[in-house]
């Protein structure tokens, strides 16, 4: 089965699907046929027949979730806490002084320097997304910007220019 956005299921989604399978197991125990289970639970007949075969061979326990698919991430949970703290410090704390933007390449470099594990940009993005980070478009403002002068210009100069 393919999932949108290239990802699998969250823990909450896996638990919900597992609950549906357990409901199917209860119905099978009552003698309900797989096509009827499929209609009642609004799932495909193919799924209902597969669940029925697993239930028949191993009972309700055979329908328990096996957890997330694929290899476990090399990014350990304790590393994520450290990475979040380092990202909050900003790129300048890690030697990038020319601009104050985190890029995927920079984040991957910070991880590699600390933990000696290289992640691709796609993997780095997946890690950041799991940590709750989102894409940020930088505000295009000069570092030398004088907020007081801008406020004065907006209050005094702009009304005069706008009237023309």
From TrEMBL:
What domain of life does the UniProt record list for this protein's source? Bacteria
Pfam families given in the database record: HTH_23, HTH_33
Q: InterPro entries annotated for this entry?
A: Homeodomain-like_sf, Winged_HTH_dom
Residues covered by the Winged helix-turn helix domain: 98-157
Name of this protein: Winged helix-turn-helix domain-containing protein
Provenance organism:
Streptomyces xiangluensis
Q: What is the lineage of its organism?
A: Bacteria, Bacillati, Actinomycetota, Actinomycetes, Kitasatosporales
């Amino acid at each position: 089965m393919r999932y949108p956005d290239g990802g699998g299921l969250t823990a909450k989604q896996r638990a919900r699907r597992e609950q549906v399978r357990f409901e199917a197991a209860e119905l099978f125990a009552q003698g309900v046929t797989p096509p009827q289970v499929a209609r009642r639970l609004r799932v495909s007949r193919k799924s209902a027949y597969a669940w029925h075969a697993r239930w028949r061979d191993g009972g309700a326990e055979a329908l328990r979730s096996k957890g997330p698919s694929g290899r476990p991430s090399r990014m350990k949970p304790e590393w994520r806490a450290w990475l979040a703290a380092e990202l909050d410090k900003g790129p300048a704390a890690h030697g990038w002084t020319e601009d104050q933007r985190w890029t995927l390449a920079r984040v991957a470099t910070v991880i590699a320097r600390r933990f000696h594990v290289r992640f691709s940009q796609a993997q780095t993005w997946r890690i950041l997304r799991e940590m709750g980070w989102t894409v940020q478009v930088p505000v295009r403002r000069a570092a030398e910007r004088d907020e007081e002068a801008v406020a004065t210009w907006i209050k005094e100069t702009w009304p005069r220019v706008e009237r023309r």
